[in-house]
Amino acid sequence: LEALRNAALSSSFGYDRLGLFVDTFGNRISGSTNLEQAIDWIAAEMQADGFANVTKEPANVTVWERGREFATLLEPARLSKPMSILGLGNSPGTGGTTLNATVLVVTSFDDLDAKASQAAGKIVCYNVPFTDYGTTVQYRSRGAARAAAVGAVGVMVRSVTPFSLQTPHTGNSIATAIPALAITVEDALLFGRLAARNTTIRVQVYMEARVLPDPAVSHNVMGELVGVSAPSQLVIIGGHVDSWDAGQGAQD
User: Fold this and answer.
1) What count of other Cβ atoms lies within 10 Å of the Cβ of residue 162?
2) I want to staple 51 with a disulfide (CB 3.0 to 4.6 A). Which of 74, 81, 93, 223 is the partner?
3) Distance from C-alpha of 188 to C-alpha of 221, rounded to nearest angstrom
4) Is the pTM of this model over 0.85?
């Protein structure tokens, strides 16, 4: 393993190939032509690199489309502005109209439970600081379901990242009947400060997001580098080829 690490650190081969890959195929959301073309390229490159038993295994994938989306901070009126947002995967849209509602800011699921009587008809904003990915990402994945259960009409999630330059981060959410979106760390902090002063926060959200009724067929790509000194001992390495539509997925 140390030899592999040292070889990777002393050569730009992996970085250059990654650059070629993302610059050629761009974003690769599940169900897209870009993804399937990228998978074909990977299989061909693996064969050219000498991998054995290179195969493409069919797999059904959910197809989610983002469509147009925007959000605006309406109140406090002096702070009114367009917001940087990204709808979360599997989220529905706003039904062809704008959702106009006040915001209930919470800092945890326990805080949501404590404020459950205030949630009906509101957009719940999870202003949860990043600690580690496994802990914090649960608010992105489960937050909409928990908010819908107490009557919320939408969810805003503070982007799951320790760094931000007004940059929202998307990701998967458990499918519910209410729209769910990521907002920037900066806007979540602003909402937290306003809520602490009992200031009314009202936003407007429009999303065309939808899950298509039928899955698409994608593929898992598999291959082997058969060992020489201990071929019966296996090291399994895996990753995902797809990316979100908002970027090339070079770091994920």
Assistant:
1) 12
2) 223
3) 39
4) yes
